[in-house]
Amino acid sequence: MRALIQAQIKQLSDIVGLDEASLKILICTLLSYPFGIIFKRIPDQQYFFKNLYNVLVSSFYVFAICDLRAGLGTLLISSLGSYFITRYLRTPSMPWVNFFFLMAHMFYSHVHLQFFAEYDPKVIDITGAQMILVMKLSAFGWSIYDGKQPQDALSEYNKSRAIYKHPNILPFIGYVFFYASLLTGPAFDYADYDKFIHATLFDDVPEEKRPGRIRKRKIPRSGFEAFSKLSQGIFWAILLFQAPKYVETDYMFTSAYKNKHGFLWRVIYMYFLGFSYRLKYYAIWLIAEGACILCGIGYNGIDPKTDKFKWNRVQNIDPIAFELGQNVHECLEAWNQNTNKWLKHYVYLRVAKKGKKPGFKSTVFTFATSAFWHGTRPGYYLTFVLGALLQTVGKIYRRNIRPYFLESDGKTPKPSKRIYNIVSWISTQVAFGFLVQPFVILDFGKSLTCWSTVNYWLLWITGFTFFIYSGPFAKYFKFKSAKPDSEKPPLNRINSKLSNEEKEVVTNAIQSKLEKNYDSPTLGVPSLDVFQNFDKHEIDEDIHLLNKAWESIKRRQFIDDDDFDGLKSAFTNFRDEINEIFERRKEQIKEEIQNETQKHKLH
Fold it and tell me: What's the pTM?
């Protein structure tokens, strides 16, 4: 049977012009629709058969259609390894052990694919499914961890996803190998899957809206919504099949590309090429989302405004929002949304110390995780680094240029704001055409060659922006809001002295160090021997106290973060006062030590 199916797939591949690997994924995603119709009709209380059904359908996909026997081993190693780590490793570091195990195994797969495997259009790249597993299983580890924590220590999001009893192997495998999202996603938390299997996800569905004549079914009808996603996916798929007739990546490396066409034409060509790259993601993610909606796991409650069901629980892409996005951040929010959630809730927020606001460390670790998760190819890192810079550039423009198109209240748009919106949209979309080329080309040298055909224009603009707004002449270009004098008093009339409360906070922070004979420069870089004696927890607490005083004096003086001159003047006064307190307390402690020494001598 397997040989017959593979032969039919090969014939169909020749007809539609799609490589066999991509065609197999498409077939599995489309078959999830009829399988979803069957799943909805399994009785609500048959939890065992629901899980078993998921595993059996996925097995059919893996063995009969995808012919992924070797790839199945890769998925099982990640799955079973994570299962035993989360079940039997009972230490606070368990979720991190689980996370690094999954990332290390995926790193091996990426390296093997890059250096030791030859490209075969018949074989599905298993790292795609493994990337989905990393999201699901690392989130699973944190949910197990959260289930053992005090409720008041968890955020509302974490409470809703906490797992209080480790599942048995069948429901776990049913979650991992859920057929509708096995190969392409979307990823979702185990808590959602558990509610879905037990039909408690649909407890809020009114009785009159439950389908079925004789036996009412908890899962509401979702055929129209699923068909809508399927139709959208097919629309983008049709464009995908037509795109190679007009734009191709290889054409950028021909002599005709640069010799026959001008600079502006090449920039626009890259935009349309970048658009063509997105089409396959639009198509497959929307079709997969529709399959999840049809079986019921896409259900997300009832909209109180319209009294209609919401089906966006596993939404992964919003093509319209991306294509109309006016800045990089806005576009990325619409792209691969479940990955954004995973990075936020299971990486970014988890790196920060409990009770502390995420900072630089969380940002860097999240950035590194995202790039590493995608793979080891140099092209990924070129795209991610430039993407990070472009987000900063976008913030700079919104902070310093956008206000000129708003009324004095900073909210009401002027008529000219439409021009700003159009320019922002065009520049953002064209920038993405440049940005995403290395993500597809992957090779470092070829990526730079591609960028060179348009004279690295986006890199020049990015560098020029940072020079203008962060360089020596920044104060001449930064936007300065015209605040009334009553709202922001001039600097020469500001009381720059610390208040009694602020002075007490600073004194406590300084004295805790001086009493332990720490004699390091105030707010400066201490010597290495000081680092050896410092306790990290104490440093964090002291910095927190000093930061509290600094934020207090900023608020008291009505200083904005963008007011560089005001910040500089206030910080100078702040530093001088701390130095003064430091020296005074140091002299007092020296006198106390001398007095104690003299007393001992007398006795």
Answer: 0.79
